[in-house]
């Protein structure tokens, strides 16, 4: 396969996953702050921008929930916004029409047209949850159509590799956003008890619905309840989203799937990208969740995002050699 075509498919996968996961991040932030106390809201939206590495792109404008949501959802000039990510995915798919199914092209095009045809400014003001749900469901429809209509050839493997790497990174951000928001609430309302006190004692009642919102935002609530029953211990929630090998949106599952795709693309050769990916997966697979909390969950999540970025750089250097070194990581962070 030509490097240019492989890169287009890789980035189509990343952009589609980015659109869906950014929707999840915005949705969980919006949900968890509906009953927020004074002072919590602005800092939580600031943290979301920081974790998406978009604080500089947002600029000096005041942090207002409606403006941040508009920036993350509708800002066409912002490459990581939902509407821009879908447009970029569509353009990448359009350029490789001969390698994808007509059903996949149609599904991506319909998602693109959905975002361009509706009055989203009014929807964000009146019923943002419906818009978030529509985008998320259509992104999952695109994923389902691709899974049911594309052969498992190199094109499929590159597209899914991009999707899995993006998903691993964005799930880390999803956990980090929720954990940071809870830290803000903890500082505001229970300054005498640090957030990590919840790890062994379970979630406080007022935080319960927020951990439920996190699981639902990752489409993992029912699966979590089957595993942990009535427990809503934050350590269990984080462990499930990080380390559950059978959960499609967990970080470890995403890294494991990416490893299998890379091995197929390289015929099992131990490439630099595969070695970096193996190290990233091993750093999770053989760690105890208590250790991650004790050593600093945010630092581990931040480190995992950097590792995934290094894997993406290695994939670029090995398969898409016409791209300058570092280009993919720079775009991914933008």
Please characterize this protein's 3D structure.
- This protein is mainly α.
- Helices cover 75% and strands 0% of the residues.
- The protein has helices at 3-32, 40-51, 55-58, 65-74, 82-94, 102-117, 120-126, 128-149, 154-189, 197-201, 205-217, 221-228, 234-243, 251-265, 272-285, 289-295, 297-319, 327-333.
- Helix 1 runs antiparallel to helix 8.
- The longest helix has 36 residues, at 154-189.
- It is globular and about 55 Å long.
- Residues 186-203 and 323-334 have low confidence and may be disordered.
How is this fold's topology laid out?
Elements: H1 3-32, H2 40-51, H3 55-58, H4 65-74, H5 82-94, H6 102-117, H7 120-126, H8 128-149, H9 154-189, H10 197-201, H11 205-217, H12 221-228, H13 234-243, H14 251-265, H15 272-285, H16 289-295, H17 297-319, H18 327-333
